[in-house]
Amino acid sequence: MSKPAYKRILLKLSGEVLMGDQKFGVDPDACHKISVQVKELVDLGVQVGVVIGGGNIFRGVQAVKSGMERTPADHIGMLATLINGIALQQSFEKIACESRIMSAITCDVMAELYSWKNALKYLDKGIVLIFVGGTGNPYFTTDSAAALRALEIHAQILLKATKVDGIYDKDPLKHRDAVKFKQVNYSDVLANKLQVMDPTAIALCQENRTPICVFNVFENHALKRVVCHRDIGTFVEGE
Questions:
Q1: Strands of the chain, DSSP E
Q2: Per the CATH hierarchy, to which homologous superfamily does domain 10-115+127-141 belong?
């Protein structure tokens, strides 16, 4: 049996990942594939927290460009993450993987209000936590929320699940000669403006020495390979 390199992780899922091959909304098949992989880790004794974005439903940045105020635009984005969280939890329910939704914004009919102490208790019991609502504040991305929650729950690594297999020196979808990094340090990510996570999230991880791995979550057993073998994706760590 593979031995995990980490006891507790924070998984960041973009809304685009939950969209699967669709152009909008939530793809149940994508949710199922992700939940099965998470359960693989839980069965190995790994404690998992998940932060979800909402870009598959609503993009605040685009709304602002159309004339909406930033604060209400971000509030709508927070609600979109709640929709995604409920969809993902249903996938966990179907495979008998116990989970809880914890929200940074009050919505007690659908989710428990985020509590640091309760989050740690749930994780210690092997319950998967789905964090929604971002940080609960406008002007902060869900990348920043992922870094914040990773630090709060003492995650040993932040895993950024994408549809791309790692970090490149330039967009691999636009440039055939793009070079993939196997490992890169925080300073280089910030200095070269590599498209990994927003600068606030990178700086938080850098200051607290929390490694980041960017990987394609739809590769076979991707999560298990990152956590047990570190043989896929790109790792951001060190100076």
A1: 8-13, 47-52, 99-103, 112-113, 128-132, 157-162, 167-168, 180-181, 183-184, 212-216, 234-236
A2: Acetylglutamate kinase-like (3.40.1160.10)
